Amino acid sequence: MVKPCIRSMALSGLAVLAVMASSSVAGEEPAPAVKPKPSLGAIEIPAYSYPASVLASDALKRAYAQSLAGPGNGTITPPKDPRLVAKMRSVVNAMFERSLPFVRERYPVEMSQETIAGVEVIRVRPRGGVSSKNRRRILIEVHGGSFMVGWPSVAMLDAIPVASLSGIEVISINYRLYPEATHPAALEDLTAVYREILKTHAARDVGIFGGSAGGVITLQSIPWFKKHGVPLPGAIAPLSCAFQTATGDSAIWNFSGGFAWPGTTLVARGGYFGDDYDRRDVVPEITPEILADYPPTLWLSGTRAPEMSGVVVGHASLLKRGVRSELYMIEGGWHQSYSTAPETPESQDAMRYIASWFDHRLGK
Question: What is the CATH number of the domain that holds 326?
Answer without folding.
Answer: 3.40.50.1820
